Amino acid sequence: MKKNLLLQLVVGLLFATSHAQEIKDAMRYSQSELQGTARFTAMSGAFGALGGDLSAIKVNPAGSAIFNNNQFAATLGNHNTKNKSTYFGSSTSTSDNSFDLNQAGGVFVFKNRNPNDDWRKFSLSINYENTNNYDNSLFSAGTSPIHSVGNYFLSYANTGNNGTPVPLEFVTRQVGESINDLYYFLGTELPNKQYQNLSGFDAQQAMIGYYDQGFIIDAEDLNNPNSKYISNVRSGGYYYQENTVVSSGYNGKLVFNSALQYKDKVFFGLNLNSHFTDYVQTTNFFESNNNTEDINYRVKSLNFTNNLHTYGSGFSFQFGTIIKATETIRLGFAYESPTWYNLQDEFSQRLSSVRTNSTNVSLSNIVDPNVINVYAPYDLRTPGSLTGSFAYVFGKTGLISIDYKYKDYSYTQYSPQNDPFFRLQNRIIQNELGSSSEVRIGAEYKIENFRLRGGYRFEGSPYKNATTIGDLNSFSGGLGYSFGAIKLDFSYVNIHNTGQEQFFSQGFTEKARINSNKNNFNMTVSFEM
């Protein structure tokens, strides 16, 4: 049957959904880091009522009308991340270091020379922001007394066909059929509706773990074409496990801004934002079992590698206003729309296993389909936000600024919504995610040509359980020096938060506790014209 069906396949017909479109992947594109100019990051981004900084425009679009002259700036950043993982009482740690162009842009200011016109100023700006740096690595290791990763393959095999086992015919190679052929066949959408529900990611996981390939699972009854599956991993011992996650890439935003100044009191602004992302992740899971029972050719160890590449683009808009209530008090309000992304995933896998018998004779198996699943594009809508701001300006000597941002992550949504997989993920998002509050506080003090700056940032967990991703706390500081038309600024930002890293989405859902500490250094060169 498979051979005949394979001849009917149209090259390029791809499944609409993949394993990657889950809640944690939606969160990757829904949250942003504190990135931008050194002045902006030194004050923890509390610029909603201040403006006058190229990165402040992404908080409140009205901020570009605060500039009195044309200005251009570029920022280089160094990002150092240290992750400590705790898994079944064992602690491990990793660190990463990278350099990035965090920001580059300029603003053009057009002043109205008519003293009788209340519209005093018009500004146009364009600014690039690296909103997320995805360079990171995690390593978790520990010994589980109960669960094996074999349950991951078992779960997909027994529930892959709408809650019923994947048919044996679909996971067993026919004479002359290669692993590549079978894996490709199962990952391609079949034109015959009778068989469409039998293929897909679930069937691929069952296939690479099955006895004919990876030997991780086996059929309970080989004479039953719809047999359930059982684990072929040794039981009764302890499972030593290692999980390594290495990621790279970025999430960038190009901001097109315009703003107006009305009299000396009110500023209005609008942003049109173009988003683009490129994310690469490699995960490697290793497991070995110390069971010494006399078991004939059961799996003693395995190594499971998954590679994911997600890329795409998006759009959002913002509008905001800044009001000079008095000579010393500034008020700000800004709205940021949801970001509408169009994304695409590419995915590949590799599995190796070692089996031994009572006399320690070993048999090794490698399942490397050498096939990249290229999935159909899909849409992701991340939530919008509201920001209210207050600032107190001490003449020309200093200022204090406070921003409050509200964001409801339960409005995150995958589409098309008529897809059963997306409906399930959207229900999970609504059940597990909630609203989050973010507070930013910043201060600046001037001593002749020097500027001293500091800030604090708190962001509440977007998860209702407050543990999958914990609350974020950040401290920042910096200094700047003005040479007149040219300014040089430096900042340091420390970010700390905790969370959980779940190794797999189903079957084997063990989690490691992650304690993350980031230290970012930024340098900005800006000049006025």
Characterise this structure:
The chain is mainly beta. It has one domain (2-528): Outer membrane protein transport protein (OMPP1/FadL/TodX) (Porin, Beta Barrel). The chain has eight helices and 22 strands. It has helices at residues 2-8, 23-30, 38-42, 150-159, 168-171, 179-187, 201-209, 420-432, and strands at residues 71-87, 90-111, 119-133, 136-144, 217-219, 229-231, 239-262, 266-289, 298-324, 329-336, 339-356, 362-367, 373-374, 378-382, 385-394, 398-408, 413-415, 435-447, 450-459, 469-482, 486-502, 511-528. The strands form two sheets. The chain has a 14-stranded antiparallel barrel. The protein has a two-stranded antiparallel sheet with strand order 5-6. A hairpin with a 2-residue loop joins strand 18 and strand 19. Helix 4 (150-159) crosses helix 7 (201-209) and helix 6 packs antiparallel against helix 7 (201-209). The chain starts with a helix and ends with a strand. The model is unreliable at 3-14 (pLDDT under 50).
User: What is the helix tally?
Assistant: 8
Indicate the proportion of strand residues. over 45%
CATH topology: Porin
CATH homologous superfamily classification: Outer membrane protein transport protein (OMPP1/FadL/TodX)
First-last Cα distance: 73 Å
Topology as H/E string? HHHEEEEHHHHEEEEEEEEEEEEEHEEEEE
Structural class: mainly beta
Enumerate the strands of the largest sheet in spatial order, edge to edge or round the barrel.
1-2-3-7-8-9-10-15-16-18-19-20-21-22
CATH structural architecture = Beta Barrel
Number of domains: 1
Identify the overall geometry.
elongated
Q: Low-confidence stretches at least 5 residues in length (pLDDT < 50)?
A: 3-14
Q: Average pLDDT across residues?
A: 90
Number of strands: 22
Largest sheet: 14 strands, antiparallel, barrel
Helix coverage percent of residues?
Answer: 10-25%
